[in-house]
Amino acid sequence: MPPTSPFGRTVCAMVTPFTPDGRLDLDGAQRLADHLVGAGRCDGLVLSGTTGEAPTTTDEEKSALIRAVTEAVAGRARITAGVGTNDTRHTVTLARAAEAAGADAVLVVTPYYSRPPQDAVEEHFRTVADAVGVPVMLYDIPGRTGTRIEVDTMLRLAEHPRVEGVKDCAYDLLGSATVIAATGLAYYSGSEELNLPLRSVGAVGYVSTVANVAGPLLAASLDAFEAGSVEEATRLNAAALPLIEAMMAGGLPGTVTAKALLGALGLPGGPVRPPLRAASEEWVERLLKVHGEAVGR
């Protein structure tokens, strides 16, 4: 049986749909969320994360998005709201607002740019977890923040009753496996190429940008692994790799490639907000080709 978690298992880091003139598209967000939870096989959604362009949305837009998606999903998936900033006070404000808006949990990234030492990182997370009554998922992505959540820090934070999960983008299998083995934290791969490797050492599932456009393929690999068919899980994981590379490591941010594909597939997404820029027509054609080969279109 797959492990259980308050955040879900096959979790999509959902884009934030905008209208052609750049306004928040709440109707599009509801339609996309309904699609992801239904046809996309996602049992959890993360809103206002990196893929959701959180740095360019206002606090009011974040709360409105939670309310709209929660209404659309109607209990069919867990809603985790990204609330992390590089300001502890602002993060607490966003976390409380997310809880009030109906989020089931919050995602808190390591404070970025200022590069605080580990004791300050730990205190930041504890302060946020103390301020809310919902589960907290830590977001460890040192490539963006400049600061790792070190293993010892993670072990101490695991003792907090509301710190229940980790979105892992640290690319440190030894460290991740160590924390998984020593704690009850629900670990999620935040780097799709590591979905299967991390699951094999005890992770719950993934929080994925690629799931915006290929959720069933990613979920099928986990299903096969949990059914005991490691060979089939490996085959499905390999089938997803070219799409993962094109979307996440091909030179454009995942938000840009996900929105390009969503638009080409007739799904809500809309433009990206500056400083991001839309993919070129050539990029969209390439993405569509790779996507079709991966999902069998």
UniProtKB/TrEMBL annotation:
Keywords of the record, alphabetical order, are:
Amino-acid biosynthesis, Cytoplasm, Diaminopimelate biosynthesis, Lyase, Lysine biosynthesis, Schiff base
Q: Which Pfam families match?
A: DHDPS (PF00701)
Annotated Gene3D superfamilies: Aldolase class I
- PROSITE patterns linked: DHDPS_1, DHDPS_2
Q: Which GO terms describe its molecular function?
A: 4-hydroxy-tetrahydrodipicolinate synthase activity
Q: What class of enzyme is it?
A: lyase
Pathway in which the depicted protein is active: Amino-acid biosynthesis; L-lysine biosynthesis via DAP pathway; (S)-tetrahydrodipicolinate from L-aspartate: step 3/4
Residues that bind pyruvate:
T51, V207
Name the InterPro entries for this protein. Aldolase_TIM, DapA, DapA-like, Schiff_base-form_aldolases_AS, Schiff_base-form_aldolases_CS
Q: Which CDD domains match?
A: DHDPS
Q: What does this protein do?
A: Catalyzes the condensation of (S)-aspartate-beta-semialdehyde [(S)-ASA] and pyruvate to 4-hydroxy-tetrahydrodipicolinate (HTPA).
Q: From the Swiss-Prot or TrEMBL record, give the protein name.
A: 4-hydroxy-tetrahydrodipicolinate synthase
